[in-house]
Amino acid sequence: MPKLTVLFSTYNEPKWLEWTLWGYATQTIRDFEVMVVDDGSRDETRAVIERLRPQMPYRLRHFWQPDEGYQKCKGMNRAILLSESDYLVFSDGDCIPRADFLDWHLRLREPGRYLTGGYCKLPLDLSHKITQEDIVSGRATNYAWLAANGLERHTLKLRVQRDWQRRWLDRFTTVKPRLHGHNASAWKADVVKVNGWDERMQYGGQDLELGERLNNLGIRGKTIRYSAICVHLEHGRGYRKPGMKEKNDAIRAHTRNTRSAYTPFGIDKHLDEALEAVG
After folding, report:
1. How far is 95 from 118, CA to CA, in rounded Å?
2. pTM of this structure
3. How far apart are the C-alpha atoms of 87 and 32, rounded to whole Å?
4. Dist. CA 75–CA 72, nearest whole Å
5. What is the CATH topology of the domain spanning 4-267?
6. Strand, helix or coil at 62?
7. What residues have CB less than 8 Å from 144, skipping those under 6 apart?
8. What is the largest CA-CA distance in the chain?
9. Are 244 and 204 contacting, i.e. CB atoms less than 8 angstroms apart?
């Protein structure tokens, strides 16, 4: 059984997916699997995964579901059932992890907690400038290189160099820990207890709502925003539709007001399905 299962969604962004997968190839730990949760992408995405699988130093798996609009939550729940680790790391298929990204998630996990960080958002021009060699060499997550190539935001997360400084900033930051789906982790058993992601929710805040139910269960967030670092590749969001955020906000408000720890619209809907994954 691998120590970690990494789960992230993708939808018709094969180049950004390739760069993300190369980011996991640089990790300082090796005992993990990657599950690509494919929300109905065209054949280009499958072709990237099949081409890269023999080159990756980790087990690369691909779960695909038909394109029925934005259904990330459904895909994540199905992939959780297929995951083989007891600890889950959540990210996105447009986020390149720094080489120590998974090591920090592994080192800082503890019973009764979930971990949550952030990302460093790159401008579009810089996102397109990054190459495979930049990722493998570590330049793509190095502040000096990014700043020299168009990063204007002088984010402290990227500039901190020493482990003790990262731990100190994580401990004393005033930023409230909220589960961000691009950089978070939790025990699989805890996620199953709250019945996973709420499948009524589409784009906008569905990860925060999962974290709120974990909080209601008594699983508290722990900030790792200065330790576990990833950079976000910019792109369009054609899947974002009017009304999605408002609907999600109403579901989140109900979760907060009722202090609910369980959604009836989650993982248990798929327990009787015959699920399959590639690889």
Report:
1. 10
2. 0.94
3. 10
4. 5
5. Spore Coat Polysaccharide Biosynthesis Protein SpsA; Chain A (3.90.550)
6. strand
7. none
8. 52
9. yes
